[in-house]
Amino acid sequence: MGKLIWLAQALTGGLLLVVLGLHMVANHTTEGLLTYEGALQRFHNPAILVLESVFLLVVVFHACNGLRNVIMDYVKSERAGRLATRILTAVGAVAAVYGLWLGFALQAR
Amino acid sequence: MAKPLLKPSGVPEPEQPLIFSPPKVKGRSRGVAYWAFWLNRISGVVLALYLLFHLGFLSTLYQGKEAYEAFLAVVTQPVAVIFDILLAAAAIYHGFNGVRVATVGIGIGTKRQTLWFWVAFGLGLVVLILMAIRMLGGE
User: pLDDT tens across B28-64, in order?
Assistant: First the structure.
């Protein structure tokens, strides 16, 4: 299980380099985000919406799994470790669902 | 190819196997391994927390024009660029060091970890300087 978790963290990390790069180019190299209309317009582009959705899912997994790895270095009991895993899974699920909903809600505007 | 380390960390020395765990410090010496590991860990935690803020920023877009423009008024302050550059530094370091950690983890470059650390650090620094010039309004 530990090997799989490590591999998942490495693979999502590699994928993030690509997706984050695209996210930065698509969103932060132009002036569009500096107006409400311009920012909203981004979400009307299906390619941007797909990119942002993939980015969100990958980054949420990588962040929550990374935080879990940090916590696991310090918790002594198995029970505390399981609790940390459950809390981070819940936080990640909420962030992913909320982020996806937000993206589609903005597209509908 | 060298035997893979299955739990690679930010630790450059091959004799320190657990990469998700803090490196052991012998005596008072805190070398590259120590700082590489902790920089990776701190930058990762900072980026994870920033992710939540980033979702919050997007919420202002959903709340409407007034909320988004109030948010823009804050983040377009000159001092905000400093935070952007620090954030970029964290992301670039975490990304470049992460590549090194992953490659070492699958058994590539295990005997030259310190060298690869400095290569990753140098490349990251170049990217950061280019980004900072752009953020500060230069070309």
Answer: 556 787 888 889 999 999 999 999 888 888 899 999 9
Nearest chain A alpha carbon to B38 = A70
The pTM is what? Answer: 0.84
Fold of A2-108: 3 helical TM bundles of succinate and fumarate reductases (1.20.1300)
| Domain residue ranges in chain A | 2-108
Query: Does the pLDDT of residue B9 top 50, yes or no?
Result: no
Residue B110 Cα to chain centre, angstroms: 21
Inter-chain CB proximity B7 and A60 less than 8 Å: no
- Nearest-CA residue of chain A relative to B100? A10
- Which CATH architecture is the domain B32-135 placed in? Up-down Bundle (1.20)
Which pair of structure tokens corresponds to residue A104?
């589609």
Q: How many residues does chain A have?
A: 109
Residues in B closer than 8 angstroms to A16, CB to CB, are 95
Residue B76 Cα distances to A4, B51, B79, B137, angstroms? 42, 19, 8, 13
pLDDT digits (tens, 9 = 90+) for A45-74: 899 999 999 999 999 999 999 999 899 888
Distance from the B33 Cα atom to the nearest Cα atom in chain A, whole angstroms: 17
Q: A3: how many CB neighbours lie within 10 A of its CB?
A: 11
Complex ipTM value = 0.88
pLDDT of B80 > 70? The answer is yes
Domain boundaries, chain B: 32-135
Phi, psi values for residue A74, rounded to 5°: -115, -25
A95/B55 touch (CB, cutoff 8 Å), yes or no = yes
Cβ-defined contact of B55 to A66 (cutoff 8 Å):
no
